[in-house]
Design goal:
It is built from two helices and eight strands, in the order E-E-H-H-E-E-E-E-E-E. The protein is mainly beta and 117 residues long. It has two domains: 40 residues, no CATH class; 65 residues, no CATH class. A four-stranded antiparallel β-sheet has the order 5-4-8-7, with no helix packed on it. Strands 1-2 form a two-stranded antiparallel sheet. Strands 3-6 form a two-stranded antiparallel sheet. The longest helix is centred in the middle third of the chain and has 6 residues. The two termini are 28 Å apart.
Length: 117
């Protein structure tokens, strides 16, 4: 049996946090006591969106590309697949772009997904 200890939701103009702590004790409750996770996931649900576009595009510094180049453009028509959002990530869809430099060079990426916030 899964025991919900705490669930807290914090928000400011800079950061949003959803924190849920759970526990089970295999010594007392037996192996496999970590069940009922759907009940925990529902604590994060807002039921705001049912599906989001799912897309990823990465271009390495050497020009090598993986993913779908259309991810960085406005989504029109049926050229980008959509997926049903899991119950814990049904608050909104998001689009993100990131560019970073690591030990092997610069990498950029674009992502579309569902969000818990």
């Amino acid at each position: 049996m899964l025991h919900i200890l705490t669930f807290k939701n914090y928000a400011s103009s800079i950061v949003q946090v959803k924190d849920c702590k759970v526990t089970c004790n295999p010594e007392m409750e037996g192996p496999g006591c970590n069940t009922g996770l759907q009940r925990v996931a529902q604590k994060f649900s807002t039921r705001s969106v049912r599906e989001c576009f799912q897309c990823e595009y990465v271009q390495a510094e050497d020009g090598q590309v993986s993913g779908n180049e259309k991810c960085g453009k406005e989504i029109t028509g049926n050229d980008i697949p959509s997926i049903q959002c899991p119950v814990y990530a049904d608050s909104a869809c998001f689009w993100a772009a990131s560019f970073h430099k690591d030990f092997t060079g610069s990498t950029g990426g674009l992502t579309n997904m569902g969000s818990t916030f």
